[in-house]
Design a protein that fits this description.
alpha/beta, D-amino Acid Aminotransferase, Chain A, domain 1, eight-stranded parallel beta barrel, seven-stranded mixed beta barrel, 30 strands, elongated
Length: about 775
Amino acid sequence: MNDFVKDLAAVRNTDVALVGGKNASLGEMIGALSEHGIRVPGGFAVTSAGYWRLIDGNGLRGSLQALMAKLDRKELSNLGEVAGEARSLILAAPWPKDLEDAIRNAYQRLGEPSVAVRSSATAEDLPTASFAGRHESFLNVRGAEALLDACKRCHASLFLERAIKYRHDMGFPDMKVALSIGVQRMVRSDRGSAGVCFTLEPESGFRNVVHIAGNWGLGENVVQGAVVPDEFQVFKPTLRQGRNAILQRRLGAKQKTMTYAEGGGTVNLDTPEERRERFTLGDDEVLQLARWSLAIEDHYGMPMDIEWAKDGEDRRIYIVQARPETIHSARDPYRLRTYSLSSGGEVLVKGSAVGSGIAAGRVRILERPAEGDLLQPGEILVTDITNPDWDPLLKRAAAIVTNKGGRTSHAAIVAREMGTVAIVGAVEATARLKDGQEVTVSCCEGRTGRVYAGRVPWTEHDVDLRTVKPSRTPAMLIVADPEQAFRHSFLPHRGVGLMRLEFVINNAIRIHPMALVRFDALEDAAAKAEIARITRHYPDKRQYFIDQLAQAVGTIAAAFHPHAVIVRMSDFKTNEYANLIGGRAFEPDEENPMLGFRGASRYYNERYREGFALECAAMKRVREDMGLTNVKLMIPFCRTVEEGRRVVELMAELGLKRGENGLEIYMMTEIPSNVIRAKEFAQHFDGFSIGSNDLTQLTLGLDRDSAIVSGLFNEQDPAVMELIASVIASAKATGTHIGLCGQAPSDMPEFAQFLVEQGIDSISFNPDALLKGMENIQRAEEG
């Protein structure tokens, strides 16, 4: 080896000026992380000294400097012309013999295998900036001549339009950045799979998960956003404890598979349907990758962006890149801007939301970057897919919508970096949206982004969370949607006082649990066919319900860990259960479902007992397999003490024994009998949660949804207040935790004051009402 070429195993993080951030990181992992079992393909780096040998050996430094001086730095109007001339100078330059010999000899020592040739700029992959995707990379390069050609093209890519613009935006002088090249033995992921890992959740910046994305074939389709990949979320704290800490598995469409082409290079093929229906990684492999990601993050001491590849021949996983995550690590985590739609509207397309913002404007559909002059500032860019060639255009767009791509695609990464609203994987967006059409692009509704027709009004609110003073009375959250959990975790909460299962069952699962238990006996052919389609990956249909519910609850429990997350077991009414797929065969017709077959009464009844067993199995998986023992369980609408005892005993039979592994079981206090016999209920439950809505309705004997009598609904009616005061006193006497869930304490300061005066242990609010509710609590406490 000489100054022009270095073996990757011989370089370390301190060698960034010589080999660039990408190669320095690879060498660091080979040298420092092999003890963790982390595999990195071997290879060598063509150093920055080699780059300057090519430039100065051909007398190009002055010519390139002069070209860069001609660049219109204000409007970049001649960017394409200047960039093209600069690349032509480099591509036409012959290799100095000593540099060419050094590259040939290093390749020969490697055994002349098929290699990946990747650019590694000497200012690249810093914690404050990432040149990822700005320079060229080449896969499946075979033979010395092809290697030299690929290296020359990498050097020339330092002057691609996107690379020049990025240096301009980041303040890097053009002639101070050199380019090293990494030459690595190819992993045969063309016969396996590949993808990326982030050691934080890439939308919210939540630090306690490893996010893994994967696709069949070479990893370029994931990096470039050409496919919707499989996605996995792994919870770091319980992963470190050796638990099966996979919170989520999402099967991606995986539309394309990139493989080697005959004679070198690559070809992108349609993925066969059978492979699209299979996950790219098994659970053991997901956990292995997550453990490796943790080790890499621990070593570097910062969140990391990692690329992995699974060799289809030796079946082993390799790490092929690791760099600092540059988006969320640069943001102030205490600054919170929240968005909320003031109204709904017609949804034109849906996809994966990037960020949490909202934007409105006119649609501009473009097929290629060359049409960029058509895009006016503030328009909504709609296209099939983006790659780094689009970068100079993207800052002009108010929002970006693409047909293809996942959360780790190019469009998603650039949108996060720029703070631009984006929806990726919005299938047929270019067909359904029309040029010049006014639309609103919303990413504030969880993982699903929506494009609405017209300009839908919205509100924005800025908060510096460092200024939010916590109240003495814990303020908790009411949540239902797992997609919002990581984002809401940054609010100044003390845990979750109420997680509703109904949202998950209705929106994610959609199937009546008894229709899964008794799938083979279903008589409704249409429902049976639909259930078969939805659960096609589950030979045992019951496992579909358990798996989906456990993932949803596990995600929320992880987001708010180690604070308590109180999960209310299902509380649909019969008419609501009947609307689930296959539900009508299992639900009676009731005149008044509000007062009928609901809550605790269902759980031990033969009509639903097996369905309740599925709920319990999901909760057991969350607490025992995932290790999320911060989950507490709550029983709704428990009419009698005997009923409470019976349900708690049934849960013990189903593996959820009160007190075992720290399990606490709470009861909703929403029926006057719960108040009157509170001390007796306390013998069977660890806590109470006042459901002020139902308690008010049942105390006053009215239906708040009735237009005729709804005006009488009032949580501050003396009768309701007396019951609340009474149950708080009973809870204090028995040492039972008691909280309240509802909107009233945020809407009515005097109600919050009443609760504080009675000694309530906690109050739970919807996320959009939390800060107002805390303000009301503090005013009462200062009182």
